Amino acid sequence: MATPTVTRKHVPEDMTVGFIGAGRMAQAMAKGFISTGILKASNIVASDPDPICLQSIQSMGVKVTDDNLKVVADSQLVVLAVKPHIITPVLKQVSPSFSRDKLMVSIAAGITLSTLEENLLPSTRVVRVMPNTPALVQAGASVLAPGSGALSGDPELVSELLSCIGICESSTEGLLDAVTGLSGSGPAYAFVAIEALADGGVKMGLPRDMAVKLAAQTLLGAAKMVLETGKNPGQLKDEVCSPGGTTIAAMHKLEKGGFRGALMDAVEAATLKASELGAKK
Predict the structure, then answer these.
(1) How are strands ordered across the β-sheet holding 125-130?
(2) pTM score, whole prediction
(3) pLDDT tens digit string along 78-110?
(4) Of 103, 226, 271, 278, which is most buried by a Cβ count within 10 Å?
């Protein structure tokens, strides 16, 4: 996957960024920041209790530590990238060190802005982000929501950084459950679609490896056409469907099978589940 091109507008050239938690998503973000040149590896520091995670992110030139407070002290922006069940103790640990000149970005799934802000000092600058796993190959889709203490330029700063690992949109927290249902869980829907298309190809005689490559590239190409042409997906679909041809015959089968409705139901179910889980925290 090609590295996204990012034009520096809001991120200072000497900006320092820290990660509390150095797992796969933190590593993906660090890789994106470094490969696009938006940040220097020497200006990034990460902490994690897992030495394997630290070793992986250190291999990019990132500084590592086992001290969360050092990450906060050495960073202008801190990415909170830990598992949801340990969010509260981590916030309580770092809260006294979090001054107004620092920005916290949380990518912890399901952790609301109110939970974050209740465990930090008043007026702490916080931005909540819902990324997705294709960020691991710099093709992510992220949506951010600023907290009550965020400054006017904070969303733009975070958006520019997240553009290093894909696309980023700004929204309100009230829509993040729907974002979870669509782009957060959506890669799984796409993987099932690729698998099913490949199975169809195998049923019709294609070798498995060829079928998987063709299916994956077909979805990738279709997605690029939507994003790059600006055309409505329905229009692009119509352009493939010749009168009396193979594609419209296939579309009839998909319609009879409830293809559209199943995807809409999936987004709805994941959204409602995200809302339910958020209410329990």
Answers:
(1) 63-65, 44-47, 17-20, 77-80, 103-106, 125-130, 140-146, 166-170
(2) 0.89
(3) 999 998 889 999 999 999 999 999 999 999 888
(4) 103
pLDDT in tens, 213-256: 999 999 999 999 999 999 999 999 999 999 999 999 999 999 99
H/E element, 46: strand 44-47
Is 91:36 a contact under the CB 8 Å cutoff?
no
What is the Cα–Cα distance from 27 to 191, expressed in whole angstroms?
22
Nearby residues of 171 by Cβ (< 8 Å), 6 or more positions away: 143, 144, 145, 179
How far is residue 242 from each of residues 217, 248, 257, measured CA to CA in Å?
A: 22, 7, 21
What amino acid is encoded at 103 in this protein?
L
* Alpha-carbon distances, residue 66 vs 2, 5, 70 (angstroms): 33, 32, 8
N residues, the chain? 281
Mapping DSSP to helix (H, G, I), strand (E, B) and coil, where does residue 281 land? coil
Between 51-58 and 24-35, two packed helices, what is the crossing angle to 10 degrees?
Answer: 10
